[in-house]
Amino acid sequence: MADADTQSSARDYRDTVFLPETPFPMRGGLPQKEPLILEQWGDLYGRLRAQRQSENAPLYVLHDGPPYANGDIHIGHALNKTLKDFVIRSRFLLGYDVDYVPGWDCHGLPIEWKIEEQFRAKGRRKDEVSKAEFRAACRDYAGKYIDLQRDQFKRLGVTGDFANRYATMDFSSEAAIVAEFHRFKNSGQLYRGSKPVMWSPVERTALADAEIEYHDHVSPTIWVKFPVTAMSDDHPDDLLAFRNPTPSIVIWTTTPWTIPANRAISYGPEIAYGLYEVTAMEEGLEFAPWAKPGDRLILADKLAEDVFKAAKVAAWTRVYDIDPSGLETAHPLAALDSGYGFSVPLLAGDHVTDDAGTGFVHTAPGHGADDFEVWKAHGHHEVPDTVDPDGAYYDHVPLFAGLKVLETEGKKTGKFGPANGAVMERLIEAGNLLARGRMEHSYPHSWRSKAPIIFRNTPQWFIRMDTPLDGPLKSGDTLRETALNAIDDTAFHPAAGKNRIRSMVEGRPDWLVSRQRAWGTPLAMFVDKQTGQPLHDPEVDARIVKAVAEHGADIWFTAPDADFLGAHDPARYEKVEDILDVWFDSGSTHAFTLDPRLPENGYAGDRPAHWPADLYLEGSDQHRGWFQSSLLEGCGTRGRAPFKAVLTHGFTLDEKGEKMSKSKGNTTDPLTIIKESGADILRLWVALVDYSEDQRIGKQILQTTVDAYRKLRNTVRYLLGALSDFDEAERLTDYDQFPPLEKFVLHRLHELDAQVRAAYADYRFQDVVRPVLEFCAGDLSALYFDIRKDALYCDRPDSLRRRAARTVMDAVFMRLTAWLAPLTPFTMEEAWTTRFPEAGTNCARVIPDTPAEWNNPAEAERWAAINTVLEVVNEALEVARRDKLIGGALDAWPTVSAPAGTFAPFEGLDAAEIFRTSGAELAESGDAVAVTVALADYPKCARSWRRVPDVGSDPAYPDLSARDADAVRYWDQTHG
Q: In the prediction, which pLDDT does 421 show?
């Protein structure tokens, strides 16, 4: 190309070179530009739906799993909502009408805690605030964060029906949740049961499996003796003979505080047990052990040695086999208080193993699921209540009244209270503590408070999993069976999600749906005080739902019972004021977000939906959360899941693969990324990662993302410049007229078109962006653009080669801006409107049809072979440049030698054009590709800088090659 500083020609040819021109800047400036694009888009979602509906497009429904309305968005929100936006925009791109209504989960403990803190700061305890005032404060708090998060999601580029967003606290939502609850109540799936549930003393409420997380926890361990007091006739006579010490059955537990609740000991029918006698203790101990020679202990044979080691027993003898069946013991605290003077039976239980402990399980039916089940299975019905909602012993508990299991206030919240220590001291006093220790183990904690939980017997409301029912379920099927069938009918992305949720549903207990809190949707029903059964009256239910729809769920707590009960006597009925599990709230979202907009339900508006939804998309933890509650809610009320497919993503870690934590200072704030680099950078990071696994993010990773973005941006910028003033008259339409290189690029477009469509259809966004990036960096920048730069800049505008190049570049531009629109919508919008300012938004486009004739595997094979040679040539040219043999490739005239047949792909092509040199010689010889670089020994064209033999062949332009002389003559003629 001409350069006035280096050319000696009398004429400056710079004006005759067709250099790319575009106002599209090299630097993105995304933080400043993206808000302007958002403003230009306006109600983009509404316009896209209207356009697709006018085209009779098929409907696609993505139902939003609601984030919690509490605080700014974090990187997990950004990942989740960006993936959802990829789905929305890619389905629009594929020609669908897409329904997506963003939603928020508003009820629950996190907001309750915040409001409790606010009232405490004003000197008011929660019990001094009316329920109506407290709930109003919760509602205001949630509303504030819905507005905040909505704006942050929009800034991220998320498109959806934000104007008609849903929230679980909306009056209409609460009414629909109550109506869904009534469907369970009226179908017989709801029951009240008293059984041990996971209970958080800190939060004073029952918790479900989905509200639990496990952390390492150090617990005291104790080995406790239960003296045998009675036996059946099939035991040896001398077992309880006066001449022998009284034998004791030994249990082991990590919850000493549950000993006062003990009512039985469980044993394994298949386990071998023996009666052992202590003969000697360890010597030289710093303390006096509680065991002594002569003690007789009944233990599982496999675990006896471990028990004796813990008790500092040095020697023992095994007296004989023992069958625990038919034995009875005293409670270990019976000698201290007559309240423990009951007999403790031995119960056979399948849950007992000899893997650890003693082979016997201390059984407190009020504090363990297995304990409760084995107690009930043996015909026992009364379950003792020993611990109150605050985690303290009730006043009626002998010896320990009022002592706390866990601290629930102050700096020690969540730490052990005095209960464990007090129980151990009393066991020592009674002479029945054999040994004690400490153990670190995985223990359930509340995921909200992070405090340990306990198992506590309390009356709660449950939904049956295993009772055959009619109604919405197939006659005779249980809710569990219906849910498992629905899982089998669901597509999972990734596929492993199916086994994960299936195993959870197979093993889960009945659904605990009641909570003892204030901020939520109530179990709005009445219970007959005489029968204990819920009232089934359609008119009462209708009045409740109508009132909640008009006034919100608060009305349930403030209106007189008679307003709902009608002709029923209020004195006969108990109003249930527990609130629903928040997972029931969010599991019902399909009912109030999709159902009201179903055409079959009479909807005739412009935002139709269908049921079930095509996709639910959330983090992999939601297999036990929202996916499962939605599954059970849909199956329990409609006989199937409310989704056709489920997509899960992993969690975002820091660059070292560690969990993010504010205390560690290793968090990455999405709002900071957007402010400093732009939303498209964050979105491109999401596109580049394998979202199905845990991903990493940090400054270094984001810098890699920025580098990838620059490649995309520079590719688009080059295309915009190269296509300046391109019009239809210039377009080449006959495929046979395209040179081989253009046919290769068209073939790559054909390949990528199929890949991109399939990847978007299967939600494989990484398989969109990575091949496209490789195409931009390899096929385009390193090959096509480099080869065609000379023709693009220096050929006359009407030359076939230049027209072909610009036609192909137009095809590339049209597809790149479509393919990448869902992933980097701001940048592609900027590129599209730069070229077509009057053509409307890029977001409304569909992927252009790609002609079948572009499929040309032979051309792909040819250029793969050419590239093999080209790589060797480029290496040789780089060495020559480094050795200062040449200044640039146009100074070179390489001779390339290779085995016979190597140059067949070059037939009909100009090797010098491919090598970007002034000339080239190809010679078949040797057994490998070899290159000799020589200087091009010809005059240098003053315009294109090529050193070719025909420089000066046109007397009118003596310093130009023939091609350049022709181009300049054309330029002179057209420019006067």
A: 86
Listed as ranges, residues in the chain with pLDDT below 70 are 1-9, 197, 208-210, 212, 241, 441-443, 447-448, 470-476, 976
**Phi and psi of 260, rounded to 5°?**
-60, -20
Burial string for 602-631 (b: 16+ CB within 10 Å, else e) reads: eeeeebbbbbbbbbbbbbbebbbbbbbbbb
pLDDT in tens, 849-904: 999 999 999 999 999 999 999 999 999 999 999 999 999 999 999 999 999 999 99
Cα–Cα distance between 722 and 551 in angstroms, integer? Answer: 63
- Extract the tokens encoding 830: 């900027």
Is residue 459 a contact partner of residue 192, using CB atoms and an 8 Å limit? yes
Pick the closest to residue 933 from 923, 945, 925, 921 (CA basis): 921
- Cα 591–chain centre separation: 23
Distances from the Cα of 649 to the Cα of 79, 159, 486, 666, 825, angstroms? 9, 20, 21, 21, 22
Alpha-helix runs per DSSP H in 407-558: 419-430, 479-488, 496-507, 538-551, 554-558
Closest to 965 in 3D by CA, of 918, 7, 973? 973
pLDDT of amino acid 595: 94
The answer to whether 413 and 407 are in contact (CB under 8 A) is yes
Q: Which amino acid is at 895?
A: T
d(CA 55, CA 97): 9
Which residues pair with residue 574 across a beta bridge? 527
Contact criterion met (CB below 8 Å) for 371 and 351: no
Q: Which amino acid is at 653?
A: L
**What are the φ/ψ torsions at residue 314 (nearest 5 degrees)?**
-90, -35
Q: What is the pLDDT of residue 5?
A: 37
CB-based burial, 147-163: b 16+ in 10 Å, e otherwise? eebbebbbbbbbbbbbe
From CA 263, how far away is CA 452, in angstroms rounded? 24
Other residues' Cβ atoms within 10 Å of the Cβ of residue 29: 11
What does the block give as tokens for 862? 């040819």
Q: Report the SS3 class of residue 13.
A: coil
Give me the pLDDT at residue 882, please: 94
Is the Cβ–Cβ distance between 402 and 186 less than 8 Å? Answer: no
Which residues lie below 8 Å from residue 384, measured CB to CB, with a gap of 6+?
261, 263, 365, 366, 457
**Beta partners for residue 898, in sequence order:** 924
Which two three-digit tokens encode residue 938?
């010809």
Kindly give, in sequence order, each residue whose CB lies less than 8 Å from that of residue 779, ignoring residues fewer than 6 positions away: 744, 745, 748
**How far is Cα of residue 150 from the mean position of the Cα atoms in its chain?**
19
Furthest CA-CA distance within the chain: 134
Distance of alpha carbon 823 from alpha carbon 756, whole angstroms: 12
Distance between CA atoms of 677 and 207, rounded to whole angstroms? 41
Beta-bridged to residue 619, according to DSSP, are: 649
pTM value is 0.83
How many helices (H) does the chain have, and how many strands (E)? 28, 30
Which H, E and C letters describe 103-172, residue by residue?
A: EEECCCHHHHHHHHHHHHHCCCCHHHCCHHHHHHHHHHHHHHHHHHHHHHHHHCCCCCCHHHCEECCCHH
CA 358 to chain centre: 42
CA angle 862, 866, 868 (to 5 degrees): 120
Listed residue (853, 869, 844, 885) closest to 931, CA to CA: 869
Side chain identity, residue 463: I
Give percent helix, percent strand, percent coil of the chain, each to the nearest 5.
45, 20, 40
